[in-house]
Please model this.
Amino acid sequence: MPLLYAHERALASGEMGENVKKLCPAVQKKKIAHAFPLLNAEKLWYTDFMNTAHRKGQSDMEKRKEFTFPSADGRTAIHAVEWHPEGEPTGILQIAHGVAEYALRYEPLARFLNARGFLVVANDHLGHGASVAEGAPRLYFGEKGSWQYVVDDLYTLRRLTGEKYPGLPYFLMGHSMGSFLTRTYLIRYPGTVRGVILMGTGQNPDTLLIGGKALASVLARRVGRENPSRTVELLAFGGYNKVFAPNRTSCDWLSASEENVDAYLADPLCGGWASTGLFLELLDGMAFIKKPANLRHMNMATPVLFLSGEDDPVGNMGKGVRAAYRSFLRAGVRDAELKLYPGLRHEILNEDCGEQVCADIWDWLARHNG
Model:
């Protein structure tokens, strides 16, 4: 874990457990989208909330199914989740989450789409959430080239879900690191999805990627690919918070919503220092998806929606998102849209206007679901 502010240490130690619990009623009245992230920290409270909030009809827990499938790495059981609507689904959205988080954080969006007839699936990437093999380090994909394992796992879930629900329009959405994985997926598995949503993505200069890889490679040899490095952590995320100084926490850049930031910090399955190996794989993946020759392997008829906060440092405050969008247009993508949200940071689904973001996602899905 990175060095924590005093406020964060209290959250991580459980000293603020009662205060966090007290947020639930207010959050529930204000916006359901904030409730689920807060619940992840304490399973008992989560269960109580679900029992209270869904007493009529089929419960959310009954509509949510969790299962595993073998990873492309040949060692790990990948944990996956399926959220089913009340009736027969009219379409499917698969979600690829970001670094240092996990699939169940997207339950609010899944419920929103369930209510509109969509089935939603997601999996925990290698080394994340419940997809960590016994004895394996957390936030570690594997040996060199393991970025492709994670992309292949996305395709496996797409194939398994498609076989279970044949003939339905199938969409893929990636957030943050998940957006870079999704962009790799578009190149490796063109034409296998109806459309793609890229949320919280970016486009870094070649010099930054090359320099970052050189430094991370040296540190990986020093500490081991499976281990973290404070220097690499600062290289990857250190600059994000400076924009929002003076800082309340080390993760102010995640969200303008203090409730969401506190929930993230309190969640034992979120945060922490990623391995040097994961950063090397991420940098390789980001370099791969920038190359025009690789982009030409995409299916140019696949619609793409770019969504990001205008104050998201991962997207360089909108500049990197626009650069990625323009690269898709130059490659020949025929249906690409870009929407930036003023005042929003990285986790736009968990901001105070998260329901509007969900509605925008649904509007795009509905327009492309025919």
User: Anything to note?
Assistant: The longest strand covers residues 64-70. The mean pLDDT is 86. The chain has one domain: 6-367. The two ends are 46 Å apart (CA to CA).
